[in-house]
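Reviewers of the previous submission asked for a worked example of the structure-prediction workflow described in the proposal, so we include one complete record here. The input consisted solely of the amino acid sequence. No template or homolog information was supplied to the procedure at any stage.
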Amino acid sequence: MRQRILILDSDQSARSALSELLSRHEYEVFNASSGRQMDGIMGEVDVDLVILDIMLPDESGLSICGRLRNRNPAPGLVVVSAFAEESDIVVGLEIGADDYLAKPYRPRELLARIRAVLRRRREAGRAGQDDDRSLVYRFNGWRLSVATHQLLDPYGRTVDLSSAEFTLLWTLVSRPQQILTREQLTQGPRGSGPRAGSQQINVTMSRLRSKLSHVEGGPQLIRTVRYEGYILAAAVERISAD
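From that input alone, the workflow returned the following structure tokens.
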């Protein structure tokens, strides 16, 4: 079954060109020019990834990103924009995008980013199919289930994580009390994941820390080691989910 990609862009010529590119690479493509059209399509079919131009006429890109992240399961999300300043890229990642690409982009680069996001989703979707993916990691009262992607705080409350945040935390808890470089973190818990830029790791780490911070001691769980990387400071217990 071909993977499904929805293009959300108010520029018809940009949609047509991108749709043709993706179709040539065996993706099933859906096109929308507004948030309302996107909702109509996604009410009928499940899509694997959304390519979103944040400049839309009827709804802000921030709002759409939030709605996409609240879907279950949430599709992969690649934001494209004519704004290429570092601050714009940071905002794009902070609102929940899996990746951000500035226009004009090279088709081969966009395809590589799409494949990386979809690969990460497939990797996450296979959770629970082999032994170590059925584990639950317990640390300082927190519980991270690899099979369900569920993070529970010490009070049993669910903490919502994006796919990038989950993969980052999974990588940290699988190698606790060890300094991990940004390059190691981009490779995921198996050391074979798609590479991400250091800026993306920094932003994802910031979002993850923010979500841990509502519990006392949460901000201290992940420490920055200057010039080296990050470390999960807590001891971790691995238990079977069965």
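The mean pLDDT is 84. We consider this example representative of the routine output the project will generate in years two and three.
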